[in-house]
From TrEMBL, chain B:
Its main location: membrane. The lineage of its organism: Bacteria, Pseudomonadati, Pseudomonadota, Alphaproteobacteria, Hyphomicrobiales. InterPro entries: ABC_transp_permease, BCAA_transport_permease. This is Branched-chain amino acid ABC transporter permease. It is a multi-pass membrane protein. CDD domains: TM_PBP1_LivH_like (cd06582). One of its GO terms (cellular component) is plasma membrane. GO terms for molecular function: transmembrane transporter activity. The chain crosses the membrane at residues 12-33, 63-86, 98-116, 143-163, 188-209, 229-251, 263-282. Belongs to the binding-protein-dependent transport system permease family. LivHM subfamily.
Length: 451, 291, 232
């Protein structure tokens, strides 16, 4: 009789596109016996989370979860490319990384970065399951994920519970660094409140006061908080909401919502949908003649929407984290665009930018802390130092771990104005971050414990 | 939003949504009725119809050719899938059938994603059908209006095949009792293959017809599968008229609920399904039929 | 050579062994009855012959050809028909469609006119759906549907069960006419009198074993066999 192999961790309920994508020599790195690990760490600091186990070898592991399927798949792939480029640059000590994190030579504190990728499908439970595995099996020292604030919020909680630092991917909800903020979570990118604060004055200047707005809102934390922030900001200029069409994530058809919008008498359509939802709802708004009746605004611009909707973004105002043509003003952006385009063949969008910068900032914080010990790394962030980024100088607020950074307001170019095929937007304004932020406690943030 | 013109608009939109659902569901329901296999790859068939049409359109620029190629390709795929894989599962437990069709669906989606990436692809409607038409009480995209007509014709053709041909007679008999059909000297396995092909073709045809309405992504069939499943349950498993009735009901529920509160459209859809299951466990037009 | 020769047939439902080495034989133009208590294995025997249940072991020679293990439609095309206990008519098809579908692949078939002469009731209801028929009419249709294919042998599984006496009388007459016209029949029946009136030979099956074989007339003289296996 043969005995059956018992293999823990081969349970079938892992995300279907979970794949370990380790660079060269992963096996060498992670299988090194822990006994030869440096004693120094353990003596200085008590063990916490994956520390010091995660850095006992010659490498350190990062758990990456991005949506590779579902309505946010395109954005997830862009983010993943940004992460991969950042890891490559950190491991090789690329000059762009050194500009953001001067102490970096090769790797982080001399450790080579390895990583695993899991498909979250933008679903919180899938992301949490995958990251839980990266933490327990690969001793991940840092995790990332988002492209849905529902995922970001769930990973916030996981990070705080597991005491592993979470560097947030794309997440637009006010809650991520608001009521659902955690000590172990950090967000680089802009969000509902800052988007609204940056774009509202532009809209009021452009369209006037006392306008009627219709909203298309995806039904989860991101959609609700962005719509709320927009409504509050615009109400100050007498704008009213004539209808708010809430739809489920990944809705297959927007016709009913758009009929309501078409019959609402609105002057402006504010489309808060994101990912393929934004593409589809915008295309269908065109089909239903809605875009002929009212102006379209996209307060939380979706990477790739201009490419995917053909000419529909022409003349449309949008707020974004990054648009590649700001490279004229920011030399680091130029370096990034060149490196990215060389490797991947297209101009990076803000998913990639957020991915790259947030990893670079993390690498810098670990170098400054001089240790992977999470409370030390957190405290390095919380010093609130001014840091370089691809959009100029920024800093993280110690009270809620939100990066204070500018918001880029763009307007879709007409076809004849486009200088090349990726020149979709004109940058209207780069609004400094300080004035856009709510008070740190306004959204109910209570960071948890360090240990 | 609750005013007379909007109500009429939504009523009409519900009809348009429902017609499409009816067509896709009729494919699912005759396959399930005849073979006893719930084809969870049906949504993927819908998606592939769209992509096959998209490829044809890119090469030929002809929408009509795209529709023909999309439908035929998915029919051939359905037949191949039945011959190579599904037929080995007729005598296996239902769970195995669900797993294998679910797995095939995932494979199809991922293969398409590999080839075309997740970025959406656009198939424009034929030039004649672009733009918006005024119906007096509402403005409606011309192509969507045409879809209602096209789908009605397709459903009519399916009706004629099912109710006016020998093949249709065999299929209806097979939906009731495929073992008995076999005992009457008719090779029921060949009928299964044909039914699978026709059912898949209905999905593929709907996929390419719907492509200009939604823009294609590899996941375009995922939600449709769920809605289709609800339609089949409401209408009665294995019932072609049930699929049409169920489709129209589902379309109207989604559309009318969206008028009051869009967030509840799906809630109401599932509530309706639950209600039907409680009051008529075999669906509105279903029979106690198969074991 | 007999029309049907069954040797050592064993059938199962899943893991439960139902038929044990069943052997029987039916001559051309003969009416043979298969008797046995409820659950003895009569229906399973007929289904195994028809290929609705696939026997695991044993041989079924039908008109000189081995048919065990074949698909039902092949067996039907070889000239066998089974009228199920549950009749299994197509409720959503009309009476006439039920008859037409049966004849589609038959090498020779009865004209519908001949069917309607035999069962005038079906002519009256030819446009009705199967579900609209009474029990007796359904049974007529089930038998008629088998006859359309002009089978070499027809297997009748409890054709008179649960029907009103007048209808049983009509159906019995139809069966007798068939037998006189040379139709080979295997009849499964609980109604002993009806069976003995029709059959020339009988088999008795008990717990999946054939326990008795003999001419129909002799069985009345063996009350202990009737008592033991049939409880009468
Ligand atoms: N589909 C089935 N699955 C499992 N067991 C069955 C099935 N059909 C019949 N049986 C069992 O097989 C035995 C023989 O049944 P059957 O041939 O129908 O008996 P009869 O027709 O003589 O009354 C019975 O014990 C019955 O319970
Ligand atoms: Mg029986």
């Amino acid at each position: 009789m043969s005995t059956r192999d018992f293999r823990p961790g081969s349970a079938p309920n892992v995300s279907r596109r979970t794949l370990l994508q380790a660079g060269a020599g992963l096996i060498g790195g992670s299988v090194l016996p822990a006994s030869i690990a440096s004693r120094a760490f353990a003596e200085d600091h008590p063990a916490i989370g994956t520390y010091p186990a995660g850095t006992s070898g010659s490498s350190a592991f990062i758990g990456i979860s991005v949506p590779r399927t579902g309505t946010y798949a395109v954005q997830g792939e862009d983010e993943l490319k940004g992460y991969q480029l950042a890891i490559e640059h950190i491991n090789s000590g690329h000059e762009l990384i050194k500009k953001i994190s001067p102490k970096t030579s090769k790797g982080v504190l001399g450790k080579e970065l390895k990583f695993g990728v899991a498909d979250s499908a933008a679903k919180p439970n899938e992301a949490v399951q995958a990251q839980q595995r990266f933490i327990s099996e690969n001793k991940a020292v840092m995790i990332t994920g988002g492209t849905s604030s529902a995922v970001a919020v769930a990973l916030n909680k996981l990070a705080q519970r597991e005491k592993v630092i979470f560097v947030c991917g794309i997440s637009g909800s006010n809650d991520t660094t608001g009521k659902d903020c955690v000590r172990y979570g950090f967000r680089q990118n802009f969000f509902g409140q800052t988007a609204a604060a940056a774009i509202a004055p532009v809209l009021i200047k452009q369209f006037g006061k006392n306008k009627k707005a219709a909203y298309l809102t995806p039904d989860y934390t991101y959609g609700h908080t962005v719509t709320k922030s927009m409504q509050d900001r615009l109400a100050e200029a007498g704008w009213t909401t004539v209808t708010n069409q809430v739809s489920p994530l990944g809705a297959p058809d927007y016709s009913s919502y758009l009929l309501n919008v078409a019959n609402s008498g609105a002057d402006v359509l504010i489309n808060v949908n994101w990912g393929h939802d934004a593409v589809l709802s915008t295309q269908q708004a065109k089909q239903f003649g809605v875009l002929d009746k009212m102006k379209l605004v996209v307060p939380y611009q979706v990477p790739f929407i201009a490419r995917e909707t053909g000419g529909l973004m022409q003349g449309v105002y949008a707020a974004t984290d990054y648009w590649w043509t700001i490279e004229d003003k920011y030399p680091l952006a130029k370096m990034f665009n060149e490196a990215f385009e060389k490797k991947y063949g297209y101009k990076p969008e803000w998913g990639a930018e957020n991915a790259y910068v947030s990893f670079a900032h993390w690498a810098r914080m670990v170098e400054e802390a001089g240790s992977f010990y999470p409370p030390d790394v957190i405290k390095a962030y919380e010093k609130g130092e001014t840091l370089p980024s691809l959009v100029g100088d920024v800093h993280y607020r110690p009270e809620d771990h939100q990066c204070v950074r500018p918001v880029v307001i763009v307007r879709g170019k007409m076809e004849k104005e486009m200088k090349n095929k990726e020149d979709y937007y004109e940058v209207i304004e780069i609004v400094p971050g300080d004035g856009l932020m709510q008070k740190p406690d306004a959204f109910g943030c209570h960071l948890g414990d360090y240990t | 939003m609750i005013n007379w013109p909007n109500f009429v608009s939504q009523l009409f939109n519900g009809l348009a949504l429902g017609a499409l659902l009816a067509l896709i569901s009729s494919g699912l329901t005759i396959i399930y009725g005849t073979l006893g296999v719930l084809n969870l790859a049906h949504g993927a068939m819908f998606m592939i119809g769209g992509y096959a049409g998209y490829v044809t359109y890119s090469y030929t620029g002809s929408f009509i050719l795209a529709v023909i190629a999309g439908s035929l390709f998915v029919m051939a795929l359905g037949v191949a899938m039945e011959r190579i894989i599904i037929r080995h599962f007729y005598h296996r437990p239902h769970e195995d059938q669900l797993l294998v069709t679910f797995g095939l669906g995932i494979c199809f989606v991922e293969i398409v994603r590999l080839i075309f990436t997740s970025q959406s692809q656009v198939v424009p409607p034929p030039a004649l059908l672009q733009g918006i038409t005024s119906l007096g009480f509402l403005f409606y995209p011309t192509y969507r209006l045409a879809v209602v007509g096209i789908v009605a014709v397709a459903l009519g053709a399916l009706f004629l095949i099912l109710y006016r041909t020998r093949l249709g007679m065999i299929v209806r008999a097979g939906i009731e009792d495929s073992v008995m059909v076999d005992s009457l000297g008719i090779n029921v396995y060949r009928v299964f293959m044909i039914v699978f092909g026709i059912g898949a073709m209905a999905a593929g045809f709907a996929g390419i017809i719907n492509a200009p309405v939604v823009s294609l992504t590899p996941g375009v069939g995922d939600d449709i599968l769920v809605e289709t499943f609800v339609v089949v349950v409401i209408g009665g498993v294995g019932s072609f008229p049930g699929a049409i009735l169920g489709g129209l009901i589902a379309g109207e529920i989604i559309s009318i609920t969206s008028m009051f509160n869009p967030g509840y459209a799906y809630v109401m859809l599932f509530a309706a399904m639950t209600l039907v299951l409680v009051l008529r466990p075999h669906g509105l037009l279903g029979t106690q039929g198969r074991e | 050579m007999s029309l049907l020769e069954v040797n050592g047939l064993n059938s199962y439902y899943g893991d439960s062994h139902i038929l044990f080495d069943v052997s029987l034989r039916v001559e051309r133009n003969e009416v043979v009855a298969l008797l046995g208590r409820n659950g003895a294995g009569k229906s399973t025997t007929l289904k195994s012959l028809m290929g609705v249940v696939t026997p695991r072991r044993g041989s079924v020679m039908f008109d000189g050809v081995e048919i065990s293990g074949r698909k039902s439609h092949k067996i039907a095309q070889a000239g066998m028909q089974l009228v199920h206990e549950e009749r299994r008519i197509f409720g959503s098809l009309s009476v006439e469609e039920n008859l037409v579908i049966a004849g589609l692949t038959a090498s020779q078939r009865w004209p519908l006119e001949r069917i309607y002469e035999m069962f005038p009731r079906l002519r009256e209801r030819r446009g009705n759906r199967g579900t609209d028929l009474s029990g007796g009419e359904q049974q007529m249709l089930a038998i008629a549907r088998a006859l359309v294919r002009d089978p070499k042998i027809i297997l009748l599984d409890e054709p008179f069960e649960g029907l009103a006496p007048v209808i049983v009388r009509d159906l019995m007459k139809a069966c007798r006419d068939l037998a006189e016209a040379g139709q080979t029949i295997v009849l499964v029946e609980q109604n002993l009198a009806a069976t003995l009136a029709l059959a020339q030979r009988i088999y008795i099956i008990n717990n999946g074993h054939i326990v008795h074989e003999g001419p129909a007339q002799e069985i009345k003289a063996q009350p202990e066999v009737l008592q033991r296996y049939l409880g009468v």
